[in-house]
């Protein structure tokens, strides 16, 4: 069986994959879910001391996941969520992975679609350039709008308390500026790379922070001869991996990945 490697996004840690890890392990897969550099501690510790978040860079994150992929007995299925979806695309472009799945993915360099709901979701970070040197948390109301807008109040609150941590203002600002600076930036991929493993974009129709229009544009940028497909799941918010019915999506994407794996 193919091993599986999860890549988490911002404002959460590998804990956000806890349900999927257990689900795939029960099917017999070797599963790993590395954290970003400095994320070897729990949610509570990162909330108490966010200095590891402030120090993060995209190259450091990618290097950490490349090292993790090399540790596996064969190329894994790579599944990333949100910023982890962008990192999944970068890992595939670098030659890692047998197949990739990007759930509610953040865009790679060159994708200029910026829906209003995304602007509202990321405003807590982007409202001030000074946040480039800080770790920025979300209030519960900001979390509910950006991550769990289709969840009940109780569900949203419980997930906020279990998963939420601050995010790197520097990386988020870097993503915004990437399309306006000369040369390749941290989230650049070669959209013409014919050697890249197959890639599936998955969108939740109700996602506010990374709406389906972003993944649609991102997928259209790929001009390679490798498989690049996209699916939309109706009624799902950004925190799709924790929303009721996630098991069906987990089955669907794993089936797709194993059928298309190199």
From TrEMBL:
Membrane-spanning segments: none
GO molecular function per UniProt: catalytic activity
Superkingdom of origin organism: Bacteria
Gene3D superfamilies the UniProt entry points to: alpha/beta hydrolase
AB hydrolase-1 domain boundaries: 5-244
Name by which UniProt lists this protein: Pimeloyl-ACP methyl ester carboxylesterase
UniProt source species: Paractinoplanes brasiliensis
């Amino acid at each position: 069986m193919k091993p599986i490697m999860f890549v988490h996004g911002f404002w959460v840690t590998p804990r956000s994959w806890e349900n999927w890890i257990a689900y795939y392990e029960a099917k017999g897969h070797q599963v790993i879910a590395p954290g970003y550099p400095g994320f070897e501690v729990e949610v509570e510790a990162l909330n108490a001391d966010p200095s590891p978040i402030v120090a993060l860079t995209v190259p450091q994150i990618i290097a950490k996941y490349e090292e993790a992929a090399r540790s596996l007995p064969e190329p894994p299925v790579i599944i990333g969520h949100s910023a982890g979806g962008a990192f999944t695309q970068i890992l595939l472009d670098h030659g890692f992975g047998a197949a990739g799945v990007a759930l509610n993915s953040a865009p790679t360099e060159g994708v200029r679609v910026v829906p209003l709901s995304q602007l509202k979701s990321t405003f807590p970070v982007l409202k001030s350039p000074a946040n480039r040197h800080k770790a920025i948390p979300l209030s519960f109301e900001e979390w509910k709008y950006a991550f769990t807008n289709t969840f009940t109040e109780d569900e949203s609150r419980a997930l906020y308390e279990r998963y939420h941590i601050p995010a790197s203002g520097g990386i988020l600002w870097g993503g915004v500026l990437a399309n306006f600076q000369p040369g390749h930036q941290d989230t650049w991929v070669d959209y013409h790379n014919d050697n890249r493993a197959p890639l599936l974009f998955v969108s939740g129709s109700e996602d506010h922070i990374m709406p389906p229009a972003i993944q649609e544009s991102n997928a259209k940028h790929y001009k390679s001869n490798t498989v690049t497909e996209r699916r939309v799941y109706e009624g799902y918010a950004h925190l799709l991996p924790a929303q009721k019915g996630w098991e069906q999506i987990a089955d669907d994407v794993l089936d797709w990945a194993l059928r298309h794996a190199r």
